[in-house]
Amino acid sequence: MKATPKDMEMKAVRTPFFLSQDLAVVITDAEITVGAQTQVMRYADILVKMDGQWKFQTMAQSGWGDMLRAKKPAYTGLPGVAAGQTR
What we know:
This protein is mainly β.
């Protein structure tokens, strides 16, 4: 793994949406700048409250699926059936 560049700066704005007292989705709008290049991204974290404390459950971000699709068909759970196909 490469070392983090010394001139890297990250700014993030997090917006929580409480679905219940024990379940929240947090949308993060972030900018990562290294030198003169800036990358903008948006992702979601799902948090669950357990024993009175918020716990990180999962993270979702779009944009990576195309890279996986180019390598192999998506898993459908059915032997010999690619995503989008029917038996």
